[in-house]
Every structure is written in C-alpha cells, then in structure tokens.
TrEMBL record:
This is Amino acid/amide ABC transporter ATP-binding protein 1 (HAAT family). It comes from Diaphorobacter nitroreducens. CDD domains: ABC_Mj1267_LivG_branched. InterPro entries: AAA+_ATPase, ABC_AA/LPS_Transport, ABC_transporter-like_ATP-bd, ABC_transporter-like_CS, BCA_ABC_TP_C, P-loop_NTPase. It comes from the Bacteria. Keywords: ATP-binding, Cell membrane, Membrane, Nucleotide-binding, Transport.
Length: 259
C-alpha cells in the first residue's frame, strides 16, 4: 500500500492552544497516515512542540479535537493515550545510565502495562513476550552487542537511539520523535536516519526535525508550521519548491536532501 493510500491513524481538527492572550496554536489541522514518516517543520517558535504536547496529551488543548486510531482522545490524559498506542521518545535524562541497555528497554517495555510490571518475563500467551520485544528493539537500534553495557557508557548517538528504543519497547502504533538528531555527528545522523526510516514497517512516525537534509530524505509527508498555523503540507519535493515555505525560512534552509 502506498503512503498516500494508507488509512489515517491520527488526526488533529482545528487544534488551538492559548496561553492567556497568546495564541500558540491557531487551529491546526493535521492528518497522519499509518506507516508513514510525517514530519512537522517550521521556524523557531512556530508551535511544533506545542502541537506534539497536544497530540500526546502532555498538555490539554484550548479548542479543537484529536482523533487517534478511531477514538476521540482530546480529553484523555497522556497515560491513556500511551495505552492506545502513542509513544513519545524520552530525553537522555530519562535513561537509567547505570543500568545495562537491555534493562533500560525491559523497564520501558514494562511501562506499557504497570500492573504486569513484575510479570514482564511471563507475558500472556499469544502475545509477544517482553524478552522478544527487548531483543527485537535491540536489533532494530543496532545496539545488540551493547545489550549488557551500562547506558551511561554509550556514545551520544547511541544514547539517542536508545531513547527511541525506550519508546519502541512499549510497542506503540505511533511514535513521536522531537529532534532525535540534535547534537549528533555525521555517522550518528546516518544511523538515526536508517532507524527512523525502518520504523514505518511496523509503526507510524511523527517527527519534529530541524535537519532539513534528513527531513527531505526520510519523510513521506511534511507539514510546515508558522506562527501557530499550518503554512503548507505536501511531499518533500513540493515543500522544498514551495515559495511560501522558502520565504518563511528566508530561503536558506530548504536545500538539503535528495527528495
Ligand atoms: N507555557 C507557555 N506559556 C507561554 N507561551 C508558551 C508556552 N509554551 C510555549 N509558548 C510559546 O508558544 C510558541 C510556540 O512554542 P513551541 O515551543 O511550540 O515552538 P517550536 O516550533 O517547537 O519552536 P522550536 O523550534 O524553537 O523548538 C512560542 O512563541 C513559545 O514562546
């Protein structure tokens, strides 16, 4: 199934967020299709992170609706949305630096069903066991040979991949990544790019990313925000050639990538 034909997994309808009189989001519409990489870009202060907060339930909307996997989740707190299959990548500070990589992932896998936390290694019949999940995430991250290494001993790039893995361990339908490549060197960038691209076989990725080369290379759809609104949406080559987008960025950032 092509990316444009897959069903809509996540939808924002006229989402607003106000802080007193300041309008951080002024009625954002967004449709994210299953098994795609959907990037949200825009200049500093455009409202990208605020939109993520609304979608994942970290903060409540001031207006509008959010639909996920056929449910209206607008009023649901973040932990309920996690149970519905949304996962947000954690920051490095949330890794357990003294624990081995495998243990970090095991704890993250348990987080999906707190009541089962102590029973993680004996998951119910018919469901993939916790150990299988951890093993497959380790493989996906390219960190299998570091499974027994304390997370604190990993390189910066490896730690950033492990953060993505912490979200993956919850077996989400949709994974939200907020600038997963920040502070990375070239080699780590390529690894992260491969990781994100590979996720869409089993997941849907919503990505905030400032590195335009990466955005242009790996996105199926790009939504451009400016001043709390959607300025443009389309395929990478459409966005790169969009005059409104170019002027929003003063023409100097939409050059990267092969798309
Ligand atoms: N708690 C808050 N109270 C008041 N204003 C806020 C609050 N949180 C965010 N804002 C404002 O909302 C606007 C959008 O911020 P947001 O962090 O969503 O932008 P962004 O597109 O993610 O920017 P960046 O690329 O710099 O991270 C900014 O003007 C910001 O100052």
């Amino acid at each position: 199934m092509s990316a444009t034909a897959s069903p809509i997994l996540l939808e924002a309808q006229g989402v607003e967020k106000r802080y007193d009189k300041f309008v951080a989001l002024g009625g954002v519409n967004l449709k994210v299709r299953a098994n795609t990489v959907h990037s949200v870009i825009g200049p500093n202060g455009a409202g990208k992170t605020t939109l993520f907060h609304m979608l994942t339930g970290t903060k409540q909307v001031s207006g509008g609706r959010i639909l996920f996997d056929g449910h209206d989740v607008t009023r649901e707190p973040d932990h309920r949305r996690v149970r519905r299959g949304m996962a947000r990548s954690f920051q490095v500070t949330s890794l357990f630096l003294t624990l081995p990589v495998r243990e970090n992932l095991r704890l993250a896998a348990q987080g999906v069903a707190p009541k089962k936390a102590l029973d993680c290694w004996n998951a119910p019949e018919g469901r993939r066991s916790c150990a299988d999940t951890v093993a497959s995430v380790l493989e996906r991250l390219g960190l299998a040979r570091y499974a027994d290494t304390p997370a604190g001993n990993l390189s910066h790039g490896q730690q950033r991949r492990l953060e993505v893995g912490m979200a993956l361990a919850a077996r989400p339908k949709a994974i939200f990544l907020d600038e997963p490549t920040s502070g990375m060197g070239i080699d780590d960038l390529e690894e992260m790019k491969r990781l994100i691209q590979g996720l869409k076989d089993e997941h849907t990725v919503v990505l905030i990313e400032h590195n335009m080369g990466i955005v242009m290379d790996i996105s199926d759809t790009i939504t451009v925000m400016q001043q709390g609104r959607v300025l443009a949406e389309g395929l990478p080559h459409e966005i790169r050639n969009d005059e409104r987008v170019r002027s929003a960025y003063l023409g100097n950032m939409i050059t990267g990538g092969k798309a």
